[in-house]
C-alpha cells in the first residue's frame, strides 16, 4: 500500500514538472514572439547601440577656381592619426617618443592623451603626406598596436599665399574662418561622413572594424572673376614694393570697368593659408576692402567731375592761383608752396593744385558735392561678396563747414576704401556708368553646370558720358605730361592720378607726423579702357610721394598686362616716325644660347619684320608678327630669357 502511494506521488511530481516546463516554454515562446515580431524595432536599436558606435568625419569641400578654371582652393585626402588607449601594448611614454617627431602635438601632450580612459582619441588631424607616410613606417617597424590612420579631407591652396586674404582659410572642423571660405561656407562646406564601428559589450571599439560608411553628396564649387596670371603680376609687384620701400602694408586692385569683375586683389603683408596658424591678424586683413584712408589727390578727379557735371565749373573757368587761399580763416597751400597764376581745370588736375581744388569745392557747394559723392558710392559698402567690407566715412551734410568742403575737394576730410575708389574710377573709365564690383563669376553644381551666375550690375551713372570723357582726357595728360609720368606705358595711352596723403591718427585724431599713404589710380588704355587699377602703399620709408613710388608700380603691372591680353599699341615712338630705315635699324646682336638652352632676347625696336624673323628662326624660336614695318614693341622685353621653341610676339608699324 505504501508503495502504491509513492508511485502516485512520483507521477504527480512528474506531471507538475512537465507542466512547469511547458509553462516556461510557453512564456519563452511568447517573449520571443514579442521581441522578434512586436517589438523588433526597439530590439534592433538596442542591439546596435550595444555593438556599434559612429565616428563623424567631414567630406571634401567644393573647389574654388579662377576665371580660367585653375584651382585656387581644393580638398585633398590626407590621413589622420588616432589611437585606442585600451589596446596599446607599449607605455605611453615610449610611444610618444617614437611618434612625436612626425606629429604637430608635443610629446608630453601625446602621453597625456594616451593615458585617457577612452577607446578613441585623435593624435594628429590631417597630417602632411610625407609625415604620415614616415610615421606609418615607424609604426610598422616598432609594432605599435593601438594606433591607426583614417582618411580625412584637408583644404589645400596650390598657389600658397596667392590671393590669401580673398580666399581665407579653413579650420580642422571644416569651418571657414576667413575670406570666401567663411563668406560662402554654407555653399562649399563638406557634408558629414559617418562611419559605423563595431564595439564590444562595454562599448569599446573593436579596433579598425569599420563596417560601413554613409557619404554625403558632393559639394558645389565656385568660379571667381580673378585671373591667376593677373593676380601673380600684382602680387609680384607688391613684393617688390615691400622690399624696396618697407611700408607697413600695401594693396592693389585691378578691375574691368565695363563689367565690375575683379581681376586681381592683392595685399601685403600676407600669409600661406595652408599654414594659417603661422599668420597674424595683420596678415589676415584684406586691406583692399577693410582699410579706410584719406585718398588725397586721387580724389580730385571725382570732385572735379561733380563740379563739371553740375555746371558749377567749366573746363574754361580760369582760376588765379597765388599759391595759397584763405577759407574761413584757415590758409590752404599747394603741396610745393608755389603759385601757378591763371590756370584752368586741366592744369589744376595736371599739377595737382590744392588751392584751385579748394575753390572748386566751395564754388560747387556742399549739397551738390555730397549728392555726387554718394552717387559715386562713397559712404556705403559696394556689396562685394567678401566679409568685413568697410563703408568709409562722409561727414553728414548738415555738419560740413566751408573748410571741410574745401579740403574734401582735394581728398581730405573724407575716408574711403580702396575698393570704393576703384568702383568710382570705373565710372570715369566706362563713360559715366558705374558697375558693381564683384569677385564671384558663378556657383556650380558638382557636374560643373552653373547653379547661379553673377549678373553684371550697373549701380548708377554718377556723371554724364561727356564729363567722363573730359576727365579721362585730363588724366591722360597727368600721365603723359604731369606728375604721373612714371606711370606711362611705352606704346599706350594710360590715364591716372597720383596721391600723397597724411596718415590719419585713428587713436588720437588728426594726422600722424611724417607718415603718409602714397597711391596711384589709373585707367587704360584710354581708347578702350580694359583696366582700372589702384595701388595704395601704407607708410613707406624714405620716398613717400605717390608719383614716385606708386605710379611706377602701375607702369610695371600694365606693361605686362597689355602683353598678356595682347592689346595692340596705340603710340609710336618718335624715332619710329622718322621714316628712314637707317634711323630704325640698330646693329643686330648674335644669337647667344646658355648651357641650359635659354636664349636672351634683344630689344627688337627699329628692326624690320624680316630681320626679326631671321634672328628668331636662327635662335630656334617661333615668330608671331603683329603688323608690318619696323618693330615698336614685343611681348617679352629685351633681356628676357626664353626657351627654345617658345613663341615671341613682336609688334610692327610703318
UniProtKB/TrEMBL annotation:
GO terms for molecular function: glycosyltransferase activity; penicillin binding. Residues 575-584 have a biased composition (Basic and acidic residues). GO terms for cellular component: plasma membrane. Residues 575-596 are annotated as: Disordered. The keyword Nucleus does not apply. The chain crosses the membrane at residues 14-34. InterPro entries: Beta-lactam/transpept, Beta-lactam/transpept-like, PASTA_dom, PBP_dimer, PBP_dimer_sf, PCN-bd_Tpept. Residues 597-654 form the PASTA domain. Its EC number is 2.4.1.129. It is found in: Membrane. GO terms for biological process: cell wall organization. Pfam families: PASTA, PBP_dimer, Transpeptidase. Keywords: Glycosyltransferase, Membrane, Transferase, Transmembrane, Transmembrane helix. It is an enzyme of class 2 (transferase). Belongs to the transpeptidase family. This is Peptidoglycan synthase FtsI. It comes from Veillonella criceti.
Amino acid at each position: 500500500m505504501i508503495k502504491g502511494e509513492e508511485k502516485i506521488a512520483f507521477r504527480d511530481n512528474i506531471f507538475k514538472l512537465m507542466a512547469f516546463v511547458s509553462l516556461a516554454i510557453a512564456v519563452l515562446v511568447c517573449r520571443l514572439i514579442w521581441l522578434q515580431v512586436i517589438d523588433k524595432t526597439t530590439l534592433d536599436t538596442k542591439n546596435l547601440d550595444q555593438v556599434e558606435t559612429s565616428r563623424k568625419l567631414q567630406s571634401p569641400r567644393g573647389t574654388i577656381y579662377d576665371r580660367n578654371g585653375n584651382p585656387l582652393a581644393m580638398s585633398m585626402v590626407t590621413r589622420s592619426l588616432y589611437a585606442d588607449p585600451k589596446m596599446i601594448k607599449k607605455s605611453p611614454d615610449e610611444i610618444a617618443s617614437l611618434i612625436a617627431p612626425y606629429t604637430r602635438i608635443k610629446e608630453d601632450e601625446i602621453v597625456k592623451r594616451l593615458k585617457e580612459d577612452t577607446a578613441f582619441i585623435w593624435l594628429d588631424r590631417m597630417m602632411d603626406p610625407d609625415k604620415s607616410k614616415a610615421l606609418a613606417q615607424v609604426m610598422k617597424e616598432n609594432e605599435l598596436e593601438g594606433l591607426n590612420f583614417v582618411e580625412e579631407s584637408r583644404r589645400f591652396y596650390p598657389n600658397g599665399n596667392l590671393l590669401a586674404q580673398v580666399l581665407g582659410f579653413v579650420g580642422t572642423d571644416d569651418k571657414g574662418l576667413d575670406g570666401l571660405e567663411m563668406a560662402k561656407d554654407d555653399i562649399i562646406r563638406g557634408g558629414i561622413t559617418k562611419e559605423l564601428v563595431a564595439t564590444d559589450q562595454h562599448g569599446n571599439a573593436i579596433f579598425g572594424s569599420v563596417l560601413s560608411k554613409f557619404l554625403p553628396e558632393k559639394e558645389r564649387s565656385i568660379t571667381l572673376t580673378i585671373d591667376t596670371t593677373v593676380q601673380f603680376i600684382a602680387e609680384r609687384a607688391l613684393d617688390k614694393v615691400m622690399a624696396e620701400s618697407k611700408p607697413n602694408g600695401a594693396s592693389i586692385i585691378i578691375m574691368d570697368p565695363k563689367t565690375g569683375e575683379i581681376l586681381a586683389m592683392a595685399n601685403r603683408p600676407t600669409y600661406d593659408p595652408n599654414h594659417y596658424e603661422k599668420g597674424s591678424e595683420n596678415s589676415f586683413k584684406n586691406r583692399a576692402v577693410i582699410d579706410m584712408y584719406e585718398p588725397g589727390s586721387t580724389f580730385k578727379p571725382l570732385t572735379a567731375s561733380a563740379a563739371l557735371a553740375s555746371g558749377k565749373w567749366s573746363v574754361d573757368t580760369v582760376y588765379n592761383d597765388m599759391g595759397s587761399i584763405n577759407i574761413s580763416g584757415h590758409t590752404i597751400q599747394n603741396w610745393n608752396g608755389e603759385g601757378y597764376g591763371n590756370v584752368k581745370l586741366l592744369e589744376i588736375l595736371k599739377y595737382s593744385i590744392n588751392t584751385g581744388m579748394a575753390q572748386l569745392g566751395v564754388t560747387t557747394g556742399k549739397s551738390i558735392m555730397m549728392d555726387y559723392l554718394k552717387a559715386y558710392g562713397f559712404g556705403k559698402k559696394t556689396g562685394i561678396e567678401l566679409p568685413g567690407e568697410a563703408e568709409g566715412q562722409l561727414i553728414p551734410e548738415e555738419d560740413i563747414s566751408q573748410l571741410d568742403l574745401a579740403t574734401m575737394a582735394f581728398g581730405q576730410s573724407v575716408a574711403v576704401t580702396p575698393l570704393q575708389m576703384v568702383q568710382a574710377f570705373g565710372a570715369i573709365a566706362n563713360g559715366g556708368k558705374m558697375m558693381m564690383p564683384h569677385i564671384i563669376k558663378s556657383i556650380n553644381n558638382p557636374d560643373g553646370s552653373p547653379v547661379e551666375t553673377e549678373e553684371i550690375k550697373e549701380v548708377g551713372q554718377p556723371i554724364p558720358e561727356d564729363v567722363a570723357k573730359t576727365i579721362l582726357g585730363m588724366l591722360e595728360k597727368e600721365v603723359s605730361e604731369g606728375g604721373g609720368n612714371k606711370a606711362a606705358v611705352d606704346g599706350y595711352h594710360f590715364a591716372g592720378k597720383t596721391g600723397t596723403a597724411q596718415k590719419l591718427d585713428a587713436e588720437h585724431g588728426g594726422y600722424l607726423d611724417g607718415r603718409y599713404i602714397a597711391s596711384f589710380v589709373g585707367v587704360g588704355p584710354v581708347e578702350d579702357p580694359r583696366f582700372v587699377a589702384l595701388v595704395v602703399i601704407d607708410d613707406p620709408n624714405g620716398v613717400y610721394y605717390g608719383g614716385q613710388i606708386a605710379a611706377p608700380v602701375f607702369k610695371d603691372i600694365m606693361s605686362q598686362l597689355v602683353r598678356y591680353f595682347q592689346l595692340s599699341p596705340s603710340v609710336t615712338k618718335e624715332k619710329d616716325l622718322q621714316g628712314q630705315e637707317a634711323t630704325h635699324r640698330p646693329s643686330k646682336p648674335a644669337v647667344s644660347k646658355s648651357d641650359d638652352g635659354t636664349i636672351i632676347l634683344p630689344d627688337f625696336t627699329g628692326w624690320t619684320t624680316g630681320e626679326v624673323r631671321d634672328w628668331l628662326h636662327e635662335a630656334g624660336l617661333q615668330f608671331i608678327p603683329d603688323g608690318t614695318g619696323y618693330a615698336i614693341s614685343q611681348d617679352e622685353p629685351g633681356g628676357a630669357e626664353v626657351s627654345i621653341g617658345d613663341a615671341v610676339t613682336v609688334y610692327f608699324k610703318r
